[in-house]
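FAQ

Q: What does a record look like?
A: Structure on top, sequence underneath. For example:
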């Protein structure tokens, strides 16, 4: 299977064309290559480090959550040139899925995090661009400290908790979605889990009486690429490998 065939399959699987995203996110095939795809490197971020890992691991393609194109038209110079040149020189293809990977009901980042914490009775939650990209539901009742410790161990990432008390109803949106704390408060949820936030989100959580848990932008978004990789391996027999390069954020 070549990269065009595989990209067409991923476009349909992730419903790339119909999902709104950030301007210039360019979901889908970002860098084409030649030949068959026998091994795919899975990564949260497209950066020089993960490119180097993909080349070292003999990957023909990368499947990532954060691709190389974000800011619109830009000149091929500096780090942008180096990354592009490295991929083309190594015949390394690139496919990126941002919001489509966040919200996918089976293989998405949010579904992976929901499964990780044992979230039941799932309902869509967390509006972004007119669509709900996360989930809300219930977990077995436990303290905020206990849930935070479980997340720390399972994600292998530091977790920050704002607030304390017992948690049963939970909303979650992976990555940098702390603004959605207001929606969690309005819906009366005990807690809201996301990746990272800003100073003002502390006050919004406290004043909204909703426990806020920051579990890491990077850490909360590793599940989607892994899930898609597992699916591709099962369906097409393609070897996949997760290229772990945590930012600590």
């Amino acid at each position: 299977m070549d990269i065009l065939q595989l990209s067409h399959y991923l476009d349909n699987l992730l419903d790339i064309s119909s999902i709104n995203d950030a301007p210039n996110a360019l979901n889908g095939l970002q860098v084409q290559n030649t030949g068959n795809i026998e091994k795919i490197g899975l990564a949260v971020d497209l950066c020089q480090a993960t490119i180097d890992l993909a080349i070292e691991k003999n990957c023909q393609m990368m499947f990532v959550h954060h691709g190389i194109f974000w800011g619109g038209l830009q000149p091929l110079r500096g780090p942008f040139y180096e990354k592009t040149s490295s991929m083309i020189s190594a015949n390394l293809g690139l496919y990126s899925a941002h919001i489509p990977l966040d919200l996918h009901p089976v293989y998405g980042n949010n579904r992976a995090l929901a499964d990780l914490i044992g979230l039941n009775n799932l309902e869509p939650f967390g509006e972004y661009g007119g669509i709900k990209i996360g989930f809300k539901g219930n977990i077995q009742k436990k303290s905020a400290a206990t849930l935070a410790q479980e997340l720390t161990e399972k994600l292998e990432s530091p977790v920050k908790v704002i607030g304390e008390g017992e948690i049963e109803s939970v909303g979650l949106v992976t990555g940098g979605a702390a603004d959605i704390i207001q929606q969690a408060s309005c819906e009366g949820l005990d807690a809201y889990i996301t990746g990272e936030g800003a100073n003002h989100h502390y006050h919004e959580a406290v004043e909204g009486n909703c426990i806020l848990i920051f579990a890491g932008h990077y850490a909360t978004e590793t599940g989607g690429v892994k899930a898609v990789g597992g699916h591709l391996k099962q369906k097409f027999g393609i070897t996949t490998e997760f290229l772990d390069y945590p930012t600590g954020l």
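Q: Is there anything notable about this one?
A: The first strand starts at residue 28 and ends at 31.
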